[in-house]
Amino acid sequence: MSIQLMVVAAYLPKEVINTTQKLVLMKIADSADDQTRLARPGLERMMAWAGVGEKQVITVVTQLVGLGLVERVTIGRVGRRAEYRVFPHGVPPIPSTEELIERRRAAQRAPTNPRLARKASRRKPSSAARTQQDVAAREETRASTEPGPEPGLPQGNPDSARGRVAAGKPSGLPQGNRAGSPGETPSLPSSSSSLPYPPTPTADA
Question: What are the CA-CA distances from residue 82 to residues 13, 35, 46, 75, 106 (Å)?
């Protein structure tokens, strides 16, 4: 176990390795010998440290070999752990506090996306929340400053001059068939009671 090599791996900047690569490298360095820098961490322990699966751990170790931070000495087989050498080209120095401060300031000055970098000055970051009440108060302040939804219908207010019937008596309604339907009320034939009664049959008929 080498605490010094693990600390060196922990201080590598994010421009060199990402978080998953750093965790795997720290586990390899933790299992390394201080003199020879040889380590046999085991696949299961590297998976547990990095919180990833077997295939991703193997991929990350290959990436570390490509970066020159790890060297494969012995390839692992069934029943035999792989052996690695940490920092085969030399152990980097542990950065001082001044170097870490300058690294942080340089990261703050650098734009997140150089193509879309804003020229306006950034606002001062808010103080760190200490309690749950601080977080709740910050969320309430943020909600009160955000603009609310615009009044009106969700699809927008309709145009006042379009799609509306003008005031007054409507025109253009169908008038019916003037030739077949007179303007006055049609008369129906009278009932059959107005017709003359038929003659009463007699005994001679």
Answer: 27, 19, 12, 5, 39
Q: Domain segments of the chain: what residues?
A: 3-86
Torsion of CA 183, 189, 191, 195, to 10 degrees: 140
What CA–CA distance (Å, rounded) separates 86 from 38? 7
Q: Which residue is it, tokens 């038929």?
A: 198
pLDDT in tens, 114-132: 565 555 555 565 666 556 6
In the chain the beta strands, taken as DSSP E runs, fall at 38-39, 70-74, 83-86
Statement: the pTM of the whole predicted model exceeds 0.70: no
For 3-86, CATH gives 1.10.10.10
Query: How distant, in Å, are the alpha carbons of 43, 75, 81, 124 from that of 78?
Result: 12, 10, 8, 56
Which CB contacts under 8 angstroms, 24+ apart, belong to 61-68? Answer: 61/24, 63/21, 64/17, 64/21, 64/24, 64/25, 64/28, 67/16, 67/17, 67/21
Instruction: Give the Cβ contact number of residue 86 at 10 Å.
Output: 27
Please provide the distance, in angstroms rounded to a whole number, between the alpha carbons at the two ends of the chain: 143
Mean pLDDT of the 141-160 span: 64
